[in-house]
Amino acid sequence: MQEKAGQAIWVAQTEQDTIALAQQLAAWAKPGTLLALDGDLGAGKTRFSQAFAAAIGVQGIVNSPTFTIIKEYEGQELPFYHMDVYRLSLEEADELGLDDYFYGDGVTIVEWASLIKELLPTERLELYIEHLGDEARRIQLTGIGERYAAWCEALNEIGAMG
After folding, report:
1. Cα–Cα dist 94/91, whole Å
2. Segment (H or E) for 2
3. Distance (Å, rounded) from C-alpha 133 to C-alpha 47?
4. pLDDT tens, position by position, for the chain (162 residues)?
5. Dihedral of the CA atoms 73, 79, 80, 85 (nearest 10)?
6. Alpha carbon distance, N-terminus to C-terminus of the chain
7. Which residues face 36 on adjacent strands?
8. If you write DSSP's letter for every residue of 104-122 in order, what string do you get?
9. Is residue 145 a contact partner of residue 4, using CB atoms and an 8 Å limit?
C-alpha cells in the first residue's frame, strides 16, 4: 500500500523566514515526530535544527552533532534528538539503535537523512534545503504518511512560498 504523501515549497528570503518555518513545524510536533533533513554543505540544516529546538523550548546552545552523531536535549514539552549521520555507514547507523529515538517520546531531526533512508520510519517529513545565495533558501518538504502530508497541505494553504 502506498503511503499518502504531500509536498510543499518554502522559499525563505531571510534567515527569519527559515526560522518561521521551523517554528510552524515545531508547533505541530508531538512524540515520534521525525524530520529528515538533506541539502548541500552550508545550506542551513543545522540552523534550521537550532530554530526548531528553540521553538520547542530547548534552552542553551544546539550545535551540529557531526562528531558525536546524536545529541539529546530537554525541551519544555518534548525531548529533542538531533542527529548528524554524515560520517556513518548504513551498517554503523543500524547498530546505534535509532528506533529508540524514532519511536520514542521525543522529536528527532536527522541531518543527512538520505544516507540512512532504509532505517528511517516509513512516516516522516523530508526537507531538502537549497542555498539560493545570501540568506535565501528554497526548502522542499515532502510529507510521507497522513500526518506529514497534512502538514504540507497546511503549509500550502498558509502560503508556503514564503
Report:
1. 5
2. none
3. 15
4. 456 789 999 999 999 999 999 999 999 999 999 999 999 888 999 999 999 999 999 998 898 777 778 999 999 989 999 999 998 888 999 899 899 999 999 999 999 999 999 999 999 999 999 999 899 999 999 999 999 999 999 999 887 554
5. 90
6. 33
7. 110, 126
8. SSSEEEEETGGGGGGGS-S
9. yes
| Residue showing cell 540552523 | 47
Q: What is the pTM of this model?
A: 0.92
Strands 136-144 and 5-12: antiparallel
CA–CA dist 89, 74 (Å, integer): 28
Q: Are 22 and 114 in contact (CB under 8 A)?
A: no
CATH superfamily of 5-158: P-loop containing nucleotide triphosphate hydrolases (3.40.50.300)
Cell numbers for 112: 543527512
Q: What is the DSSP letter of 73?
A: E
Ranges assigned E (strand) in 49-99: 70-74, 79-84
